[in-house]
Prior knowledge:
This protein has about 750 residues and is an alpha/beta fold.
Amino acid sequence: MKKVAAFFLFYLSAQVTFSQSNTTPAYKNSKLPVATRVAHLLSLMTVEEKAGQLNQVNGGAFTGPAANDPGQQAKMKMIQAGKVGSMLNVTGVAETKVLQTIAVEQSRLGIPLLFAYDVIHGYKTIFPIPLADACAWDPELSRQAAAIAAKEASAEGLHWTFAPMMDISRDPRWGRVMEGAGEDPFLGAQIAAARVKGFQGNFGEENVLATVKHFAVYGAVEAGREYNHVNVDRYTAWNVHLPPYKAAVQAGAATLMNSFNVFEAVPASANKYLVTDVLKKQWGFKGILVSDWNSFGETMTHGYAADSADVALKVFDAGSMIDMETRVMVSQIPGLVKKGKISMQALNEAVARILSIKFKIGLFDDPYRNCNPERQAQHVFTPAHRELSRKAGQRSIVLLKNNEQVLPLQSQQKIALVGYLAASTDDVFDFWVAAAKAPAYNPVTVQEGLKHAGANVVFAKGFDENNRTTQALTAEAVAAAAQADVVLVNIGLSGKLAGEDRSLAQPEIPDAQIEILKALRQTGKKIVALVSAGRPLVLTKAEPYCDAIVYTWILGTEHGHAVADVLFGRYNPSAKTVMSFPYAVGQIPVYYNHMNTSRPDPTDGMGNWYSRYRDIPNEPLYAFGYGLSYTSFAYSQFSLSSQQLKKGQQVKATVTITNTGKVAGEEIVQLYIRDMVANRIRPVAELKGFQKIALQPGESKKVSFAIDAALLSYYNELGQLQLEPGEIKISVGGSSDKLLSAMLQYE
Ligand code: BGC
């Protein structure tokens, strides 16, 4: 509130009117083509005003270090002087309107601002964290969730979200895995494209611009430590990390964000190979690039640039554009142009991209198009939005274990609900909850969800917010369990430990929670673990004490309702993991699409000398693509329409799936390939297709996948697709570690 008031007072005290000519300048004439309007506006702009379009300023809470902040008054003056092109972290109709009015009515040319915000998994109606949402393997659902987030955000003054985050990561120590779609490039690419389409729609009033981030390879930070070094070769980048960014660009993403990390020892923001060669030339990206928070400035900390002028020159030369919160572009570009180090033509090209987007979304014609209080009142946190969030929540929950069908619960069962997390609103919500911060937007806890479902529940805290237990807490939990038919224990980690700057060296179940599980186990009651966390945790120590394990992630507004729906079988779980669950921290990175190595296992005649650990298995506890249902599915009659594939032709892989259980369910059927011999070694399995099907008990369905050379191809280090003749293993199944296979000859 304070901030709004300050902005507003400044606005009133600084009303300046510029002489208006009677004729509308060409750039304000909505009948003219965008290119004409852009060219006209550029012809009127000073070099300082052009540099201003490359300047993005924070106007709200800090989502990065505050060191460069000049204060609100200075920011206002910069807007008036035409030295700000966009703002982040300002939200709300009233707040954005005040600032937009300064830009439009008090700056010389009246160029409107773009307002951007991290709308990562919802705005006020919060959806499952993106990692959980990806476990639904349902791009259409991901698209719908993004569309609702856009509808709410755009109703509150925003034009632009810094999402989707599409960094492939194989390391659950990295907190930001919560923001991505997991470890697989194929699935990641489908979801990236879907989220972009959901946010952007047709660039209408209810849409926001999407940002592909973080470009590139941020998910490979060494040892999962935030902002750490990245050392990935081009071959790996092209095959593992770049596909989702590419898919998002092809889906029409209007903007893209540089990452903090280096690629090939050059900071991503200043990396000509990434920005100019790959993004602009190879992929033909025509949109806007924005730095990450101070990532331009941090090229100095990396030891790549000497001072502000050096930074501005290096990032600009690489092809980067908008400077979030370093202010080197606005301060240095005019001087660099005057010295002839940056050409006016290159500057015009960059600024034209930004202006084009502003024209395209109609900001010059109606700068206040997203400042409509009625839309704000009607379009935010609606029952329909919450309903979709609940649906997404149900479809994100992964059933990891269900011995003796302890789940679903029966309505008459007496339940002991144990665990601080089950009653906490904060801990099953964060990270990135956008504008859902007031108590009115609190998520439904598991305790509330169960009560609402009419369950007979007794709650005991078991452990506290610091993951400590006491004799009294344990005794209370055991007493509750003794009275119950079944015990639900909400273990895991707070959402506050997920997200940016939340790396963990030990992504494990805390000791106190294991102690509680042990104590409860001794009651002889059935134990169901509900695990809430923003990443796959190592569950190896907890698993033996649990009859069932339900991975509930962090599901947003409807968390508790979605969990209750699954526990009572009102929704039969269908989600599958999108990251491997490590057996031990020492196994990380562990991922399904690994290379074969020279000595993969003893059956290859290597005797004991093979690639393994002496103390733990090689395999993760739960593999990529794994997830149970309350029913069971059998795969049979797998066949290829031909054993040979010729260039330009297709082969069909077909499999029959039967629901062999007693209830209706959905199954995610997965297609994998393995290129047995290639010019560059290939992974032991690569996801190349999936279909989600619904089956009644006893029902069978045939599922087919079309296979052609494009699907089988891989990238060389130049980013060219290639495929040599030879054998390809084609596999299908309901999990990456349980597949039916056949050989295909590519000729
Ligand atoms: C994050 C970005 C985010 C930006 C703006 C940075 O610290 O890395 O993902 O969009 O802040 O909030």
